[in-house]
Specification:
Helices cover 34% and strands 17% of the residues. By secondary structure, it is of the alpha/beta class. The protein folds into three domains: 11-148, 3-Layer(aba) Sandwich (Rossmann fold), CATH 3.40.50; 165-345, Rossmann fold; 353-494, 3-Layer(aba) Sandwich (Rossmann fold). The longest helix has 16 residues, at 368-383.
Length: 495
């Protein structure tokens, strides 16, 4: 047991310069520190690229950042950071990881009391050294530092990232632009990982995404710009069309966007911990790394491992392996089963294949009221066990922008399979002008089939062969028969 340290009422600096997942795992420590020292002034030093993890944390008074692998990646820059921190006259410094950069800054920062852990070279400079207990989960390992400093009660709410209102608005706008509304059930996929050996095969992620799409869920692929190639590969294997959010979000925006998901299916990675911070259920694939040490820090998670287990990494994580049986033995069936169990635990409806309307539908709505009405209707269908998993609803501002939107459609991958367009012309006062706009779009798209419907109606609750007739009635065209799964119907709706 290390020496007890008075924390309440003190000016405290916490330093930590590790990776995304590691930083997220420190958030229970931050919460517990505030509970233990309610009257303290707490400052946190973090990497500039990862600041969103702690920037809006209500348990911190201040966040200071350095660009550790950018402009601040030099001894002179680290010394400058130490001088800056020295001027702030901290009472207590707590370092949470023996990272070389962080330990160097801490060693040259003038402070009344240094505690926590540090690199071996700087250990003689520490007033109270708290060794990290690497036999317990990483989040508990950081909390244990407080225990060694004399904190008796560790109060926290698990992993926590607090997205700003701006970040939430950005996420909401992304969903609107990609035709995702309140009625949609999203399953997120994070297929990347900084460690190559932790990655499950993209084609297997694709199979899982297709299966869940057939069950009424809309797949969404997350990840950073470094994951774009992997996601493109996964999408190329898919029969259905997912929402691709890869590279679209900063960390805070990613947290806000992940809130929208019913489930996240993920490799062992930083974004997995971000999802957990938003209390989203997790299905996590683990191979070379230990879930006991770095697994999902939540009870709302299922860990999937290879069967039979590979014993090769029992003594620690391998970064190089000849056959990677720990990942290759992990099957699509295992992941789908785990996903279904997690969704059912949440009270989600797992639809049967017979109740799924296959194919892809894009509904373009000029007025937001129409989009809201359509989503209300889709919720009605979903409650009856009917789903249009690949339906997107896109709202645009005016009929005059329809041709611009149509030009975007031409650029979509798979545009060559667009077969039909149906135009609704119920607004009598604008009908002729709207019809002219529609005819311009028909020319741009070079559609083989198109029609103009003058009414917009919906089917009764009880219909035979409902999967086919729902589409027919929405299209208001008795002759537009339902074709193969690969068919795409564009419904251009102008009300």
């Amino acid at each position: 047991m290390a020496q007890a340290v008075e924390l309440n009422g003190k000016k405290i600096l916490v330093t930590f310069l590790m990776h995304l997942g590691d930083l997220t795992l420190t958030t229970p420590f931050i919460h517990a520190l505030r509970k233990a020292a309610p009257d303290a002034h707490i400052t946190f030093l973090a990497d500039e690229k990862l600041k969103d993890v702690v920037l809006h944390n209500p348990y911190l008074d201040e966040v200071i950042t350095i660009d550790k692998k950018g402009k601040d990646n030099s001894l002179l820059a680290l010394m400058a950071c130490a001088r800056r921190l020295s001027k702030m006259d901290f009472d207590v410094l707590i370092n949470l990881h023996p990272n070389e950069r962080c330990s160097f800054i801490d060693a040259f920062t003038k402070v009344k009391l240094r505690c926590g852990t540090t690199h071996t070279l700087f250990k003689p400079l520490w007033d109270v050294f708290t060794p990290l207990n690497r036999k317990i989960h990483a989040a508990d390992m950081y909390l244990d530092v407080l225990t060694q400093l004399g904190v008796q009660k560790l109060e926290h709410n698990g992993l926590e990232i607090f997205p700003s209102e701006e970040y939430q608005q950005h996420a909401d706008e992304f969903w609107r632009e990609h035709g995702v509304f309140a009625s949609d059930k999203l399953v997120g996929f994070n297929i990347g990982s900084a460690v190559v050996t932790k990655r499950w095969a993209p084609e297997r992620f694709a199979k899982v995404a297709d299966i869940l799409a057939e069950k009424g869920y809309k797949p969404v692929f997350f990840g950073g710009t470094m994951d774009e190639e992997m996601v493109q590969e996964a999408v190329s294997f898919m029969k259905t069309t997912p929402v691709v959010a890869t590279g679209s979000f900063r960390i805070g925006e990613l947290a806000a966007a992940m809130r929208r998901c019913s489930l996240i299916i993920t490799n062992d990675s930083g974004p997995m911990h971000v999802a957990i911070s938003q209390k989203v259920p997790i299905v996590a694939m683990y191979g070379p790394s230990s879930p006991k040490l770095y697994g999902p820090y939540t009870k709302d998670a299922t860990i999937v491992t290879a069967l039979p287990p590979c014993p090769g990494c029992a003594g620690g994580m391998k970064h190089k392996c000849d056959d990677m049986q720990c990942m290759t033995r992990l099957t699509v069936e295992q992941v789908v089963q785990a996903a279904e169990q997690m969704l059912q635990q949440k009270g989600e409806i797992i639809l049967s294949k017979q109740s799924i309307i296959t194919g892809e539908v894009l509904l373009l709505c000029e007025r937001v009221e129409m989009a809201q009405f359509m989503h209300a209707y889709l919720r009605h269908l979903f409650k009856q066990g009917i789903s249009l998993p690949n339906m997107q609803i896109v709202n645009y501002q005016s009929i005059d922008k329809l041709d611009l939107l149509t030009k975007r459609l031409i650029q979509l991958e798979g545009r060559e399979i667009v077969q039909k367009a149906v135009f609704f012309a119920d607004a009598a006062d604008e009908r002729e002008r709207r019809m002219q706009k529609f005819l311009q779009c028909v020319t741009i798209l070079s559609l083989e089939e198109w029609s103009i419907a003058r009414t917009f109606s919906f089917p009764a609750k009880k219909l035979l062969n409902v999967g086919k007739r729902v589409i027919l009635r929405i299209c208001c065209c008795s002759r537009c028969g339902w074709k193969a799964r690969s068919a795409v119907i564009i419904i251009i709706c102008i009300i």
